[in-house]
Write a structure and sequence with these properties.
By secondary structure, this protein is an all-beta fold. Strands 2, 4, 5, 6, 9, 10 and 11 form a seven-stranded mixed β-sheet that branches. Strands 1-3-8-7 form a four-stranded antiparallel β-sheet, with no helix packed on it. A hairpin with a 5-residue loop joins strand 5 and strand 6. The relative contact order is 0.32.
Length: 124
């Protein structure tokens, strides 16, 4: 049974940093693409960043240069390092796994396993 559990959310100040973690179990995360999505109140879920099995990454324009996605293949854990936070980064952040493809594509319809989400709130 595939399970994804996020942690590390919370509150931060604009300009600050937070790191999210996503522990995967039930499969080997490094064999597939994994991603972070987020959903702000009243807005559609949007892709933030993804990483494929070769370590290649894709970022949304809104987070390029500020966020870094990475994974620890030994711990089977996905990370999102968020720096230079902005109030518009406030959202529920979800990690997700695409269990069919090894190529990273930031489209939520392709991801079949999802975590429960973790709240990130950034104040100005």
């Amino acid at each position: 049974q595939v399970q994804l559990v996020e942690s590390g959310g919370g509150s931060g100040q604009a300009g600050g940093s937070l790191r999210l973690s996503c522990a995967a179990s039930g499969y080997t995360s490094s064999r597939y693409s994994m991603a972070w999505f987020r959903q702000a109140p009243g807005k559609a879920r949007e892709g933030v960043a993804c990483i494929d099995r070769d370590g290649d990454t894709v970022y949304a324009d809104s987070v390029k240069g500020r966020f870094t996605i990475s994974q620890d293949t030994v711990k089977n854990t996905l990370y999102l390092q968020m720096n230079s936070l902005k109030p518009e980064d406030t959202a529920i952040y979800y990690c997700a796994a695409d269990l069919q493809r090894s190529v990273c594509i930031l489209s939520s319809q392709l991801y079949t396993a999802w975590g429960q989400g973790t709240q990130v709130t950034v104040s100005s």
